[in-house]
Structures are given as structure tokens and as C-alpha cells.
From TrEMBL:
Keywords: Cell membrane, Membrane, Transferase, Transmembrane, Transmembrane helix. It is an enzyme of class 2 (transferase). This is UDP-glucose:undecaprenyl-phosphate glucose-1-phosphate transferase. It comes from Posidoniimonas polymericola. Residues 28-38 have a biased composition (Polar residues). Residues 17-38 are annotated as: Disordered.
Length: 512
């Protein structure tokens, strides 16, 4: 097996540095966002419906396994050992069952595809152990008969561990025969191992990944196009995924790889929310994802959470909750800033600047006005008087000392207070609390091949760039930080960045 290493560009990020999957193009004159640029595939109701169809049978089987285990244990204690049942199980079972399902969902048991038997066994035992631990604590708090209960709990736990594993095994064998269960999957690779993986998946429907065909370079495999399993070359990934309603891809890197592994993976990343690298790779950074065995096929799973409808709904709920709370709590501060702006310089209180957001659509990003009236003319006069500053301006469109900024505006910018009105943009759904920095049309060319990825999410008030040096970073680093955020989003990452933002604002890190 060839060993493939991935070069990583260092950044100022507090998190591991992202992998840049495309070059930063320069010298391109774009007055408007490119209408034909590649954009991320929209994943919505079809994916959600497929997830429900795949998850629901497993939820039902697991709950039946719990019912059988607890009922048998209770009856055994009563009839065989003559012990007391201890409590009315029908009353406590609903919260127990709900707790198990929530823990199982967090552990990835639903929809539970691509899990090896060993990994599924481990997660089932962890879920059952967590559930019984909570149950035991609840009994200790509300009951004085724990001595009667402990035998029942111990027996029920052993029975649950057995019935859950057996139930899952039988359910997978049965569900694997149903065409509506599981996820259509693309197998991508330029050597015969891709064909072997395709055939293995066809014979292993219990895994939950249903292969629809192989994406490969026909010249490399010397194909004539008549092969039933061949559905197109690498340029056909998008059309094949949409046509077959595929949301998974297994990528098998060539043993004789002549290119960076990211070139092969990046063909799938903007199209499919789940990409699994099947290989014995070394040197691949951990932050790409966790290593997961696919029933014997070891690989690295890359899940792009912000392509998934459930994750997007969770992020939107966080945005609404925090933005409404912040607007109410900060109302006196907002009023004080508005008065300061109005009383210290002529002009409007708020300034709306057109930025590019989700799907490349323009919107007005609101700020407290921190610049003088006729700011553009003031800047041009300043650059003419100080030509040595023009290079600094053209590099990042920023100056460490900007003549357009008012005295109070300089303070507000230092503390990022001028951006508080963007909470309204969040409330209206134009922005998110955390996300890539909103950009103007002139900056599109700097994103190059990452433009489609950038426009697949809403821009944020704060983000990875803002807590990683802000204006002290280069634009290439900024693009990579945005790319990392989109590819690795989680609620915990948002929470971490919001907490880091407080520190960044208080110490004015990288602000000018």
C-alpha cells in the first residue's frame, strides 16, 4: 500500500490548520459573483426522509429489545426468586426509552449505517450503561428500597445488553433485503480495488450502504463503457449523486497515486455530506475526521455537518435563541452607542453595506456608522497624499490607521461594538452568529475554488478568522480558516468560538 501524505499550510488558528483543497486564484477580474461557479449541493427533505426510513426500524427494534429484557427480568424475579418487582415499570419506561434513543442518536446508532459489528456492539453497550446509570441514580434519589431494586437492575442490564445486540444483528439481516433501507452510495476510485469494494457492498447490504455504481477514470481502468457498474468519470460525480439520490461516497485512493489525495477527495466534498476514505493512509491529519471501520473496511469518515438538514436546523435554533436574548439584554448598550454616533458626527446612525451571503446572494450587513460622510473621497485623498499606503490597502482593503474612521468609531471598532446591529441580520436569517466573514464582490476572486464552499453557508458575526488573529492574518489564511469551519462545523465548535470571541473582543486582538 502506497503511503500518501498531505501537506498542510500553517495558520494562526487555535485549532488544527485546515487542508486547502484548491489554489487561491489571482488576477481574475470579477465585477459580479460568477453565476456558473460550482456550489455545494442542496441537501434537504430527500436526505431527511431517507434518514428516517433507515433509522426508524432500528429505533423500534431497540425499544422492543429493551421491553423484552426488562419484562423478562421482572418476571424472573417474581416467579423464580420470589422477589418484589420493586416499581411500576410502565410508568418509568417512557423516560428510560427516550433517554436511550437520545444517547444512541448522539453515539451514531441512528441511522447506524457504516458501523462494524464490533463498533456497533461497543456503542450499544455504552448507551445501555448510560441509561442504567441514570436509572440507578434516579432510584437512589426517590426510593428507599434500592436493596430490592439492585438485583432487578443488574439482571435487566445483562438482558438488555444481550437482546440489543441480538436484535440489531437480526434487524440488519432483514432490513438489508429491503431496497428502501440504507443509503445509495457512490464508489470512487481509479484501480481494481474500487470494483472489489463495489462488489463487497453489493453482497453486504446489512452495512446500509447500497452501491449504485463506480466513479472512475475509464482510461486508467481501460473500460469500454459497457460495464454495468460504471456510471461515469470524476466529472460525473454531481450528476450521478443527484440522479441516484446518493449522499455517501466511498473513495478508494489509487495505490499508484500521482496526485495529492485531496484532489481525489475534493471532487466529492461539495456534493456529498458523507465521504469515507477507504485506505491504509498515513500522514492524514486527525482533524479531517475520525477513523471508522466499515464492517471490515477501515477508513476515515469526513462528514460535512452543515450540508445536513438536521444540523442546519440546530444551528438556526441556536442563532434565534442567542440573537433574541442578546438584543433584549443589550438594548441599553445599543441605545447608548446610537446616541454616541449621532452626537459626535453628522450622518446616519446605521450603515448598511452590501455583502455576499448564502448562495452568493447580496444582503445589507448592518453596522453602527464609524466613518465620516464621503468616506470614499477621504480615503482616496489620503492614498494620494501617502502613496506608500496604497499597497497596504490593495492587499487586504484595510489600513492600520484609516482616516475615514471617526474618534468614537475607532473605539467601537476596537471592541467590535459597531457590529452589534448584525444581530438583526441573524434574526432575519441573512447571517449566523458564527460563520465565515461576509465579503464584498471584489473579494470573490480571492476565494478561488473555495467560492462554492463559502456560499454554501451563511456568513457570521464572529468566526474562526475573528478569533485567530483577525487582521494579523493573511487573506490566504483567512480563506483556509473559513474552509476549515465549513467542513468541520459542530455545535461545540460554535460554542467554543463564541466563548473565544469574548476574549478576543476584551483584549482587542488583531483589531484596527
Amino acid at each position: 500500500m502506497a503511503r500518501i501524505s498531505v501537506p498542510v499550510t500553517a495558520t494562526r488558528s487555535a485549532l488544527p490548520s485546515p487542508i486547502h483543497t484548491g489554489p487561491i486564484r489571482s488576477g481574475v477580474n470579477l465585477s459580479t459573483p460568477p453565476s456558473n461557479s460550482t456550489s455545494a449541493r442542496k441537501v434537504g427533505w430527500e436526505y431527511l426522509a431517507q434518514s428516517i426510513r433507515t433509522s426508524l426500524p432500528l429505533v423500534v427494534i431497540d425499544l422492543l429489545a429493551l421491553v423484552v429484557a426488562i419484562a423478562v427480568s421482572r418476571q424472573f424475579l417474581i416467579t423464580v426468586l420470589g422477589g418484589a418487582a420493586g416499581m411500576n415499570i410502565s410508568v418509568i419506561f417512557p423516560p428510560i426509552a427516550m433517554g436511550f434513543v437520545l444517547i444512541g442518536a448522539e453515539l451514531g446508532l441512528y441511522p447506524g449505517i457504516q458501523l462494524s459489528p464490533v463498533e456497533e456492539f461497543r456503542r450499544l453497550i455504552v448507551a445501555a450503561t448510560s441509561m442504567f446509570a441514570v436509572w440507578t441514580v434516579a432510584i437512589l434519589i426517590v426510593s428507599e428500597v434500592f436493596t430490592v431494586q439492585k438485583g432487578f437492575l443488574a439482571l435487566s442490564f445483562l438482558m438488555c445488553a444481550t437482546t440489543l445486540v441480538m436484535g440489531r444483528s437480526v434487524a440488519r439481516r432483514v432490513l438489508g433485503r429491503c431496497q428502501w433501507w440504507g443509503f445509495p452510495t457512490l464508489v470512487c476510485g481509479d484501480d481494481t480495488r474500487a470494483i472489489e469494494v463495489f462488489e463487497w457492498l453489493r453482497g453486504s447490504p446489512h452495512v446500509g450502504l447500497r452501491p449504485v455504481g463506480v466513479i472512475a477514470d475509464p482510461s486508467t481502468l481501460e473500460l469500454d463503457g459497457s460495464e454495468s457498474w460504471f456510471i461515469g468519470d470524476w466529472s460525473s460525480v454531481r450528476s450521478a449523486a443527484v440522479e441516484n439520490k446518493a449522499y455517501w461516497a466511498l473513495v478508494i485512493p489509487s495505490e499508484e497515486a500521482h496526485s495529492d489525495i485531496t484532489d481525489e477527495v475534493s471532487n466529492c466534498l461539495e456534493i456529498l455530506p458523507h465521504v469515507q476514505l477507504i485506505s491504509e493512509l498515513t500522514g492524514l491529519p486527525d482533524h479531517w475526521g475520525g477513523r471508522r471501520p466499515v464492517d471490515g473496511l477501515d477508513g476515515i469518515h469526513i462528514q460535512q455537518n452543515l450540508m445536513l438538514p438536521g444540523k442546519r436546523a440546530m444551528k438556526r435554533l441556536m442563532d434565534l435563541t442567542v440573537s433574541v436574548s442578546a438584543l433584549l439584554a443589550l438594548f441599553p448598550v445599543l441605545l447608548a452607542i446610537a446616541l454616541a454616533v449621532k452626537l459626535t458626527s453628522r450622518g446616519p446612525i446605521f450603515f448598511g453595506h452590501t455583502r455576499l451571503g448564502l448562495d452568493g446572494r447580496g444582503f445589507k450587513a448592518w453596522k453602527f456608522r464609524t466613518m465620516v460622510v464621503d468616506a470614499d473621497k477621504t480615503l482616496e485623498k489620503h492614498l494620494q497624499a501617502h502613496p506608500e499606503l496604497r499597497a497596504e490597502w490593495e492587499k487586504d482593503h484595510k489600513l492600520k490607521w484609516d482616516p475615514r474612521i471617526t474618534t468614537v468609531g475607532r473605539v467601537f471598532r476596537k471592541l467590535s461594538l459597531d457590529e452589534l446591529p448584525q444581530l438583526w441580520n441573524v434574526l432575519c436569517g441573512e447571517m449566523s452568529l458564527v460563520g465565515p466573514r461576509p465579503i464584498v464582490t471584489k473579494e470573490v476572486e480571492k476565494y478561488g475554488d473555495c467560492w462554492g464552499l463559502y456560499t454554501s453557508v451563511k456568513p457570521g458575526i464572529t468566526g474562526l478568522w475573528q478569533v485567530s488573529g483577525r487582521n494579523n492574518t493573511t487573506y490566504d489564511e483567512r480563506v483556509q480558516l473559513d474552509e476549515y469551519y465549513v467542513r468541520n462545523w459542530s455545535p461545540w465548535l460554535d460554542l467554543y468560538l463564541m466563548i473565544r470571541t469574548v476574549r478576543t473582543v476584551l483584549f482587542a486582538e488583531g483589531a484596527y
